[in-house]
Amino acid sequence: MKTDAASFRSPANSTVPGSAGELAGENDEEPPSPAVCLENVVPLPEITPRLKSKVSVFPASRSRPVSNLKANAFRRAFFPAVTDKEWNDWQWQIRHRIRHIDPLERMLKLSEAERAAIEMIQSRLPVGITPYFMSLLSKEDSNDPLRRTVVPTTAEFVTTPGEAEDPLSEDSMSPVPGLVHRYPDRVLLLVLDFCSTYCRYCTRSRVVGHGAIYPSRSRLERAIEYIRSTPTVRDVLISGGDPLTLNDERLNWLLSRLREIPHVEILRIGTKIPAVLPQRITPNLVRMLRRHHPLWMSLHFTHPAECTPEAYRACERLANAGIPLGSQSVLLKGINDNVETMKALCHHLLRMRVRPYYIYQCDPITGSGHFRTPVEKGLEIIRGLRGFTSGYAVPTYVIDAPGGGGKIPLMPNYVEGRDGDMLLLRNYCDRQYRYPDVVGA
Ligand code: SF4
Question: What's the confidence (pLDDT) of residue 440?
């Protein structure tokens, strides 16, 4: 999970645990009337036929289907004896994750680059894909966007200049094992290193999935004690790995212990679960979570094809429990690096009651060159969103500064200079405006 503090490596063992913003600070004004400058507007079709073939558009309403058609067909083909109850049981999904070459070979027509990578993977970020998420992948097309996010290729073994195992220097900012303190008023608590599905571009691929961070009570107690004795900490971000792979009881214990600390104002959970394992968002889970308000969630959606009826229902349950939801997306070459795809994703998110929060420039982790876009691509996407859609649908584009400098927001340049007391501004449809801004007034 991409989070806003850093990581650490604990000594420890290796079993699968738990068994298995600030808003962008941008205004949300409507753009000027179309009559103002329509002649300069590049038309941006909301969903083109190409995108439509990969994405469904659901009303956020009762008329939504219960499950997506791809999942149903996948189940019939590969898990014909599995009941609805089993399929919708998150622990069944975790137990039946696809992790090895044989099932992958049966379920996907693997390319040479995929097959070779799976055979080479060993000590690196493992493969793990829930049956539900596997059902969303194209069987034939190795360039399918979702497939590229979870199935490795040999490109992962190519290191390009500037890449590092820990480019954000997270390991050096950990006062106690499993806790990272980078920013003054908040900490990142890494609960475990397990995820139900592993993203090939994961910032913490150096630790995630290796069984190095285990959610033992003794380790978590040390982290809790650090927070208790550090009164400047008002915000605790619980991440990993994916903390929602812990069972309700363990998660409830942790949230309760943190809630006992008077200076902790808010708790946040970073999770990709609604996208890869929406079955985890059960009525019991949300009943437990709502006892720990104010509790926020940073979700992680990457592509509109993740916005299935199941994901809609999961987000709806969380939102109905009063949990403010934001989504963080990593900008990925050939996956979501165009205005059309990002706009469709952000529109889905708003309908799911999730605020598009950040677009991250992909961190220079080792072997991620095939995912990284030029920064200009991210700026182009922001330029194509700002003014052309609701302000709430425009995330903040950020680079997490290598070396641990924190998030730095990037914006297209809308300020062109001054003319005396006039500020020269360029609007979303490329027209210049003058704003009276008297220096020293
Ligand atoms: S879900 Fe897991 S693998 Fe994916 S980005 Fe988050 S921590 Fe990394």
Answer: 72
Among residues of the chain, what percentage have pLDDT more than 70? 85
**363 is an active site residue:** yes
Asked whether 268 and 236 are in contact (CB, 8 A), the reply is: yes
Task: Report helix, strand and coil shares of the chain as percent, to nearest 5.
Answer: 35, 15, 50
Residue 237 in contact with residue 296, Cβ under 8 Å? no
CA 302/CA 358 separation, integer angstroms: 11
Mutate to test the pocket of ligand 1, among 203, 242, 331, 332 (most ligand atoms within 8 A of CB): 242
Is the separation of the CB atoms in 118 and 328 below 8 Å?
Answer: no
Q: Is residue 250 part of a domain?
A: yes
Catalytic (active site) residue 195: yes
Whichever domain contains 356, its CATH number is 3.20.20.70
**Best residue for ligand 1 mutational test, from 129, 168, 192, 202 (most atoms within 8 Å of Cβ):** 202
One domain for residues 225 and 294: yes
183 catalytic residue (yes or no) = yes
**Domain identity same for 261 and 356:** yes
Please tell me the least confidently modeled range out of 45-59, 342-356, 368-382. 45-59
pTM: 0.87
Check whether residue 418 and residue 318 sit in a common domain.
Answer: no
Q: Is 400 a catalytic residue?
A: yes
Q: 241 C-alpha vs ligand 1 centroid, how far in Å?
A: 6
Annotated catalytic residue: which of 54, 222, 353, 407?
407
Considering the domain architecture, whether residues 378 and 426 belong to the same structural domain is answered as no
Give the dihedral sign, CA 177/179/181/184: negative
Q: Which of 97, 358, 400, 428 is catalytic?
A: 400
**pLDDT, averaged across the chain:** 87
- CA 219 to ligand 1 centroid distance, Å: 21
Range of 428's domain?
411-441
- The atom number, within ligand 1, closest to the CA of 276 reads 1
Structural domains counted in the chain: 2
330 in a structural domain: yes
Report pLDDT for 15.
36
- Is 182 an active-site residue? yes
Cβ of residue 202 lying under 6 Å from some atom of ligand 1: yes
pLDDT digits (tens, 9 = 90+) for 136-178: 999 999 999 999 999 999 999 999 999 988 887 777 889 998 9
Domain match, 321 and 182 both: yes
- SS3 per residue for 68-123: CHHHHHHHHHHCCCCCHHHHCCHHHHHHCCECCHHHHHHHCCCCHHHHHHHHHCCC
Whether 267 lines ligand 1, by a CB cut-off of 6 Å, is no
Whether residue 243 is found in the same domain as residue 300: yes
pLDDT of residue 27: 33
- Give the pLDDT confidence score for residue 46 in this predicted structure: 45
| Domain match, 441 and 350 both | no
Assigned domain for 119 exists:
no
